[in-house]
Recover the amino acids of this structure.
C-alpha cells in the first residue's frame, strides 16, 4: 500500500469510527433518563396487608377513600424506548388531607382509614403500569407529589417524585422542577383525574 493510500484509509477508518460513535450516542439519547429525587422522610416503615395498585379501596373496608380520584397510568421504558417487562413500580403519598401513614408525620389532619397510602404493581411485557389513587394534597412547603421507586430484579433502580401540572393545590412551585418529573392532569366528565407518566430507567 502506498503511503498516500494508507493515510486515506486511516482517515476513512477514523471518520467511520466517529460516525458510528455519534450514531450510538444518538440512539442512547433518544429517551432521557427520568431524574431521581429525594426519598423524603415518609417511606413506609412497616408493610400493610393490602399493597395492590388500587389505593382508594383497602381490602376488607366497606368505603372507598375520601378525595379526588386519580388514575395514574404510565409506561416504564429504557433509554432506547423499549418497554420494561417485570419491573416493580411502588408509590407512596399523602391522603386528601396531606397526611402520610408514617409515625414521624405530625402534620395536622385526620388520617383516612380507607386509604391505602402505598401500593405496587409489576409491569407486563408492554411496560405499562397503573394505579387508582387520590390526588395527593400539598403539605408544608411542598407542592403535591407522589413518591415512587422502580425496582429491577429486587434492587432499587430509581427513587423519584411525580409533580402535577394543573393540580388545584399547586401554586406553580413546580415551575422550577425539571420537566421530566411533571405530568399533566386531565379531569374526566365523571370528575376523576387522569394522567399518563412515562418513566425512563
Ligand atoms: Fe412527600
Amino acid at each position: 500500500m502506498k503511503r498516500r493510500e494508507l493515510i486515506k484509509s486511516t482517515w476513512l477508518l477514523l471518520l467511520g469510527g466517529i460516525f458510528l460513535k455519534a450514531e450510538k450516542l444518538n440512539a442512547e439519547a433518544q429517551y432521557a433518563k427520568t431524574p431521581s429525587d429525594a426519598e423524603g422522610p415518609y417511606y413506609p416503615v412497616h408493610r400493610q396487608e393490602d399493597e395492590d395498585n388500587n389505593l382508594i379501596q383497602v381490602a376488607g373496608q366497606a368505603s372507598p377513600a375520601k378525595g379526588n380520584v386519580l388514575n395514574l397510568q404510565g409506561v416504564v421504558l429504557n433509554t432506547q424506548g423499549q418497554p420494561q417487562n417485570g419491573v416493580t413500580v411502588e408509590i407512596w403519598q399523602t391522603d386528601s388531607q396531606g397526611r402520610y401513614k408514617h409515625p414521624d408525620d405530625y402534620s395536622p389532619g385526620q388520617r383516612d382509614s380507607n386509604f391505602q397510602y402505598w401500593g405496587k404493581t409489576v409491569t407486563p411485557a408492554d411496560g405499562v403500569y397503573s394505579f387508582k389513587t387520590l390526588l395527593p394534597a400539598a403539605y408544608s412547603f411542598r407542592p403535591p407529589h407522589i413518591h415512587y421507586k422502580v425496582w429491577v430484579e429486587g434492587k432499587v433502580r430509581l427513587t423519584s417524585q411525580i409533580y402535577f401540572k394543573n393540580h388545584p393545590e399547586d401554586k406553580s412551585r413546580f415551575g422550577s422542577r425539571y420537566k421530566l418529573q411533571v405530568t399533566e392532569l386531565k379531569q374526566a366528565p365523571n370528575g376523576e383525574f387522569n394522567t399518563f407518566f412515562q418513566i425512563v430507567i
Summary: The chain has a mean pLDDT of 89. The CA atoms of residues 101 and 122 lie 23 Å apart.
